[in-house]
Amino acid sequence: MSVYDVKNEVTDKYSLRGRVFNKVREDILSGKYKENEELKEIAIGEELGVSRTPVREAFRQLELEGLIKIIPNKGAYVTGITVEDVKDIYMIRSRLEGLCASWACEHITPEQLEEMEENIYLAKFHAERGHFEQMSELDSRFHELMYEACDSKMLEHLLRDFHQYVQRVRRKTLSTIERSLASNAEHQAIMEAIKSNDPKRADELATLHIHNAYDNMVKNGLKEAYSNE
Amino acid sequence: MSVYDVKNEVTDKYSLRGRVFNKVREDILSGKYKENEELKEIAIGEELGVSRTPVREAFRQLELEGLIKIIPNKGAYVTGITVEDVKDIYMIRSRLEGLCASWACEHITPEQLEEMEENIYLAKFHAERGHFEQMSELDSRFHELMYEACDSKMLEHLLRDFHQYVQRVRRKTLSTIERSLASNAEHQAIMEAIKSNDPKRADELATLHIHNAYDNMVKNGLKEAYSNE
DNA sequence: GATTGTTGCATTGTATACAATAATACCAAA
DNA sequence: TTTGGTATTATTGTATACAATGCAACAATC
Asked: Residue A78's closest chain B neighbor by CA?
C-alpha cells in the first residue's frame, strides 16, 4: 500500500482489475503463492477469465503494496519478508499502535467499546481451550477495532496494512496457550485504559503489547519459521 | 505509495510507465495540477507522447500513493490534503522520526555524520539571511540523511513518503527567520545526540522537533494556507 | 572442452480497437 | 417554463495485436 491509501477502501470490487487485485493479494497472504514464485500475466488472467490488461494494472498496485516485485521485461515475483523487515515493522507498529490507542480514548464509540469487551470475553474462552484459529481471528479483530476507533483514516490505513503484512508470518508464532492468555490480558488492560479515557496509559500499554508480541515471536523462533520452509 | 514500497526505488526510469508516473507525481507535488483537477488519460498521454496504457498503469500507482483518486468509469482527480491529514501525518512522523533518530545512533556512517554537520553549518548561514529556498532544500536533505542513517529500508521509505507528501503544504509555512534558526538549532541538537550515540536523547529531540514544526505551522496559519487559494 | 554467437521461444511493454459507462445537450410534452 | 426522456459525445474499461526484451538451447569457433 502505498502509504496513504485513504481512498479506494473498497478497491472497486466490481471492476475486473479490482477483482484480480483482491484475489492475487489474498492468495499471496494466504500462502498459495510462495515466496519468489513468478506470477505470469497470462496464467493469472486465464485463471480468472480476464485479459492481461486488468492483470497488469493489478500487478502495478500489488507492487506498490509491497507484495510483489516487478522486474522490468522479466516478470513479477512474490516478495519475501526478511527477519529485518519483521523486526522493523514491529518496532514501527509499537509506536503507532500507542498513538492509535491514545487517540482512541477520545474517539471511540460506545458500540466499538462494547464490541471490544465482547471480543476480550470470547477470546478468554478460546484461549483457555487452545483454539488458535479463533484466537488469531479475534486478535485481528481487536486491533482492527482500535484502528477504527482512533478516527484517523491515515493511521487506520497504515496500521491495517502493516498488520496484514506481518500476518503472513504471525500465524506460525502465536500459538501457545500462555501467550494467548497473556495477549488477551494485555488487550483487556488497553481496553480499560481507553474506557477510562486515559490516553497516556493506553499509549504505554499498547506500545508494550506490540513489544511483547515481538519478543514472544523471537522466543518462539522467528528464524526457524523461515528455515523450516 | 503504498506502505512498504521497499522495492522499485528507481521506479524504472526508463519504462514509459515509470516516466509517466514520475512526471505526473512531480506535477502534482509541485502544484502544476491543482486539487480536484481531473486528469485525462488521453491528454496526459499526448503530452508525453505515449498511449493510454502506460498512463493508466501509472494512474493506478498514483492512486495507491494517495495522490489521485480514481472514480470508476468517471475519471482521475488530484486529491486534496485536509487539515486533519496534515495533523495526522505530523503526529505519526513525530513518533517515527524519533525511532529513526535512535536507530541512526547505531548505524550512521562517518560520511553521513560529516554531511550532517556541513548541512547544519551551511543552513545557519542561509537562515540568518532569510534564504528560504535554500533552507527548504537543506531541511529536506537533513531529514533525508537521517532516514538513510537509520539503516532500515522500511522506515526510510515510509518517512520519505510522508515527508514528500506534506511538502506540498510545508513550503508555505516554514518561512520566518526565527523558525529557520530554531529549526536548525534543533537539527544540531539531534545530530549531537546521534554523534554521542545517545539513542534515547536523539529519540526525544527528533520527536520534539517535529512537534515544534507542527506547532509553528499551526501558528503561522495552516488553515489560511488553504483558504488563500 | 570452454567460450562465444545465434536462433527461437516465452514473456512483458506498448499501442490501438472496441465495449461500457457517464455526462451533456436537446427536444417534446405537460 | 419545467420536466422527462432520448440521443450524442466524451471518457474510461477491457481485449487483443504487435514490438521489444530476456532467456535458454544449441551451434560454431578457438
From this structure: B7
Look at A88 and B64 and tell me if their CB atoms are within 8 Å: no
Alpha carbon distance A191, A106 (integer Å): 13
Q: What is the pLDDT of residues B88-133, one digit of tens each?
A: 999 999 999 999 999 999 999 999 999 999 999 999 999 999 898 8
Strands B38-39, A68-71: pairing is unpaired
CA angle A61/A67/A72 to nearest 5° reads 65
Cβ neighbors of A95 (< 8 A, separation 6 or more) are: A207, B95, B96, B98, B99
User: What does residue A68 show for φ and ψ, rounded to 5 degrees?
Assistant: -130, 160
The cell for B21 is 508516473
- Which residues in chain B are closer than 8 Å to A91, comparing Cβ atoms? 99
What are the residue ranges in chain B where pLDDT is below 50? Answer: 1-11, 227-229
Q: Reduce the secondary structure of A22-77 to three states and give it as a string.
A: HHHHHHHHHCCCCCCCEECHHHHHHHHCCCHHHHHHHHHHHHHCCCEEEECCCEEE
**0.70 surpassed by pTM:** yes
Query: Is A3–B65 a contact, with Cβ atoms under 8 angstroms apart?
Result: yes
Q: Residue A47: which pLDDT band, with cuts at 50, 70 and 90? A: very high
Smallest Cα distance from B110 to chain A, Å:
23
